[in-house]
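Order emerges. For instance:

***
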Amino acid sequence: MFDNRVIAELKKVIGWKDHWDTVEIPALPTSLTNTQSGQHYQDYHPSVRLDYIQALLPSNYALQTFLDDIETTAINQLLEKMVQQKKLNNAGMDLIRNDLIYDNVLKDKPIINEGRLVGVQFTLDTTIGIRAMIHRIGLYLTQAQPNLTLYLYSSLQASAIATYTFSSTNANSFTWLATDVVLDYSDGTGKEGGVFYLAYYQSDLVGQAIVYDTLNWKNGYCSSCDGGVRSSKYNAISRYLDMAPFYIDATKIPAAGAMFDTDDVVYTYDNNYGFNFNISIKCNLTQFWIDNRLTMTNALGKIVALKVLQMMKASSQVSAIEQNVQINIIRDLEGDSDTRQVPFWAQVERAVKATNLDQANMNNLCVPCARKGASYGAV
């Protein structure tokens, strides 16, 4: 559903305030004190204090480690609650699972090597929340091929963003390379949009690639052939991921690994250059959660406070926390009918429910009933 960078970014939303006596408790690192919202976890309950917390910890459990751990746990719990509350249960689903572009090959159509850079261009659906994963890269070649470098380019980067080493041991055979190539519309560095190119240099081939020309990558398969099975599968993938074979002429290729001029791309929809792919399309809400991180400030602060208070309630270290403080914590956790004080756990649920997520431009299969709001996009 999301990458680890969601946790890292949410940890920047609220910080821990240093203890008033830095001799008793040394100043915390900036990774714990940084706060994008201006809020601190101590703001959410008067008993959330570093000296109280430290007094309850075992001697082998460092305070800084505990603060980081409880924040991580709270963030995961918050995201689970948000999924349930906002009905985002589809957010972890596979839209397409492990589909092949084609499942048979023609052996008698080798491609003439002309010293070109050749491959397939991938353009993702522009709605936030879509991730394409190429689980296996296949190539059909006329000769055994040791150590062919495959390059993954992004139109937003000046050089290849990844390389993969493909090897085959048999002539006139199809070989798979098992590797996960992840394609996201948003890369998490503030760059959104762009297209990807997976390619090799023909000059690196020992033999030749074999073309599969039954598929027109622009129009898809014949819809009336084989009961439309291949057409249906290909169209399901291309709904989210546009794929187009291409080449760059030998005279216009920059140094290996350097990004080429996209104006020099020539599309060849009936020539796959030997490539086949095993692809899944997934919902991935990494950027969605990151973009909405500040809207979850109150809910996150209350969840951390709740977890600290629950620990204090269960503690037998009454010498560390004065008994009247512990009594007040129990009252706050359970609520007070006389004063109509709402139990703290109920305050957490209210904070989660009140969180207003911006679902603009989200894929409606990943985020059902996505509503209008600020627009995500790229020019």
The first helix runs from residue 4 to 10. The CA atoms of residues 292 and 357 lie 6 Å apart.
